[in-house]
Amino acid sequence: MRKAFFLLLTILFSISTTLAQFKENPVLNIENKDKRFLNYGYFLGFNQYDFKFDYKNDLGEEDEVLVDKSIGFNVGLIGEMRLNEFLDLRFEPGLHYNARNLVYTKFPEQESTPVNILREVKSTYINFPLLLKVSTKRFGNWKPFLIGGPSASLNLGSNETNLDDNSSGTFRMKKWNYNYELGFGIDFYLEYFKFTPSIRGVFTITDELVPDVDPNSPWTGNIDAMRTRGLFINFTFE
Q1: Which residue of 16, 33, 58, 116 shows the fewest CB atoms closer than 10 Å?
Q2: Beta strands in 9-162 (DSSP E)
């Protein structure tokens, strides 16, 4: 996390230095936009989710669970409270949809059927992040920033209360997950609104897996913990 933070800080500084050289006295759009105590908006975007697995016994690559990732979408609302010129507190409730396929490589050849080796994990998360936005000084109609903070996610497709498990083809996850998020972006002040592209990583800190009833299950028996890792690309309109 420290390496990621310093990398983002370096990128932010480089962008700020470059933007400062574009134009010394530009015509400022929506000059008082950031001076309001409360601001509102919405976002649209894309996501890619992955899983990080911790194993009870490290048996090498032959026992690893492979994740086939796909691109999903994000949509949500934004509420922002101004703390000072450089700090804002943001609440960004949103809907995040994605599907991942888990491929189990440990089954012998005669048992390697789609029913055994493949689990489709469709996840519809309602995400509740509370984020601190740290901005630089505004350079004309540009302003880079870092953003980060905790979030809680409700997985509507978790199957947590389902009595069936992988022996019946049902992969189960916990409904509530707790994460931290870290990213950066640039505010663009257009004539009538503020447009913001941003990139953000999300890292789950709680174990999401609901293990099978059988402690020696070939699907969950050797998994100590399973946590989501995700990448968001959002486009914000305020």
Answers
A1: 58
A2: 38-55, 65-68, 71-82, 87-91, 94-104, 118-135, 142-155
